[in-house]
Amino acid sequence: AYRAASIDLMSSGRNIAARLNIDFPSAGFVQGNIGIVNAFGPATAAQISGELRAEVKRLDFIPALIPEIAEPKGEMKGVVRISGSIAQPSLTIHSELKGEARLPRPGLHLHQIIGRVTGNTTNGLAYTISANSGPGTLKAAGHVDFSNTSSWHTQLGITGTNFQIVNLPEATALVSPDLALDISAQLIRVDGTVGITEAKLNLQRLENSITPSQDILILDDESANTARVMPPLSSIIRIDLGEQIRVEGFGLNARLHGNLALIDEPNQPTRGVGQIMIAEGSYNLEKLYGAFAGL
Hints:
The chain is mainly beta. Helices cover 9% and strands 64% of the residues. The chain has helices at 62-65, 203-209, 221-227, 285-293, and strands spanning 4-12, 15-24, 28-37, 47-56, 70-84, 89-103, 108-120, 124-133, 136-145, 153-161, 163-168, 171-184, 188-202, 233-249, 252-264, 271-283. It has a 16-stranded mixed β-sheet that branches. The radius of gyration is 26 Å and the shape is elongated. It starts with a strand and ends with a helix.
């Protein structure tokens, strides 16, 4: 709940101004002001200027928006400035996020999360976000281009080293990605490599833990066509297996090695080119029989 809030409106001739102030005890504030010169004239002649500042010191609201996130901690702050005419306003944005959070489904604790967005509607927005998970780090950096008023376009790079993407009894994995994304309303293009530096998969535990996701929807062909809102995907991603990729369960204990290129094209099934080999391993028929006998 807020402790104090005020909105002041002022008018002088053809000009108007407003001030906003909201104070949230121990949680942050929202402050802003805006002024319009020649407010009652043509939109091209009315000049606007203003600023909105906000600081949020508690992130408890995030799980209500994104249920996959739990126990978020940290703070967000930012400032938005507006200038120009009512007909063609220009926005300048600068915002920051620092914090940590848990992702219960993959068993992760993301810490040292740092995100920044800066830029304007004329030259575009630059954004970065980085986080630590397990022994590694992940960073994404990109730019959104608004020069085409009828659409938008963003380019994004994702890099990381030994970033933990799953930490469950049935599976653990560390990855080192180097990906380039080019995203527009017409197409999503992804190219690069993902090195799986270390992974361990327990087939028996995995079989027992597989349950349908709560967000799965079963659609008929007609519904699927109307529900599709994502642009088509075109990608070539090379998966490189490191020296510590192990699979066990049902009597199998093996180390895998190799690489695989996953190729996606619009309206085509995903193709894989490469080879995944068992570099070394053993097979215990007694454990296999015991596993099936207990089913």
